[in-house]
Every structure is written in structure tokens, then in C-alpha cells.
Amino acid sequence: MRAALLCTINDFPCYANLSGYSTKGRFACPICQHNTCLEWLQFSHKRCYMGHRRFLDHDHPDRKDSRSFNSCEEHGSIPPPINVSKIVDMLRSINVKFGKKTPSNPDLPYN
């Protein structure tokens, strides 16, 4: 039997533990994936995700509010949803190797 868990309600750290999806770094948003808007904050040396206003309606006042955000108006659109066949292809490409990495078994990832 094969199964895939496609939807849960939880916080991001739990989501990362449950799904194995990285909720840190360049592609942290599971909705946006490769369209994640990432900015590097020079003085605090942290990543900041500022593309969240693109999910608002096009006539929402916060889209034009550059002063409260990153000095830019938001003109982006919502990323297209991923269709089921794309999800199935992504799941097929996952190569899972169970076990603990030891000197005698170097092909396995560290757990």
C-alpha cells in the first residue's frame, strides 16, 4: 500500500518535521516554492520573506503601501497552484534510503 499525506494543519517547525520539506532558506514557502520572494537583510544578517502582499486583492491598499514595507509597491501575482500530476512526479523523484549513515554505509544521509 502506498500513501501520501497532502494536507495538515500545524506550525512551520512541525510541518518541516512531518513532511521533510525545508522551511528555512531560499525556498521556504511550500506554496510559492521556487517563486519565494527572499531578501537578505544586510545589517541583521537574516533572510526576510517579503512577497506575502501578492496574496492580497489587486486593489488592496497595502499593495501600494511602500513606506510600511520594503520601500516597494507590490505588483506580483499569486503563484499558480501545482497540479496533481506535478505532485505525483515530485513524489516519484524522491529517493529514500533508510538507516543510519555509518562508515560502512556512506551512501545514507545523516539523520
Automatic annotation (TrEMBL):
Cross-referenced Pfam families: Transposase_21
Name the UniProt record assigns to this protein: Uncharacterized protein
